Amino acid sequence: MKLLLDQNLSPKLTAYFTHSFEEIKHVQELNLDKADDNSILEFARSGGFTIVTRDSDLNDLFSFFGFPPKVIWIRRGNCSTSDIRTLNEDNLDRIHLFGNDDENGILIIL
């Protein structure tokens, strides 16, 4: 499973999860940090990435256009990078199952 972390998540998270996923990139390292949501969706679609975001805008676009790409939507208020890291670690099994799920395109993590 390949993950693309949206701008609203810390680039530091990529280092924590390199061992858990086939590939994990942050939009910043791909020079997409200033790109609009449509460009990020298209990059993810063409590269086979699942987008991880805290942004409802990407979810709205997903709802309109469908998947791929899949979206993991972290619906947690203000929290630290450490909190996001723990949340993802606690949900690794769910995330991997979601990656193999052909029927669902969005995973909401609270």
Automatic annotation (TrEMBL):
Q: From the Swiss-Prot or TrEMBL record, give the protein name.
A: DUF5615 family PIN-like protein
Describe the location of the DUF5615 domain by residue ranges.
1-103
Q: Looking at the record's lineage, which domain of life comes first? A: Bacteria
**One Pfam family in the UniProt entry:** DUF5615
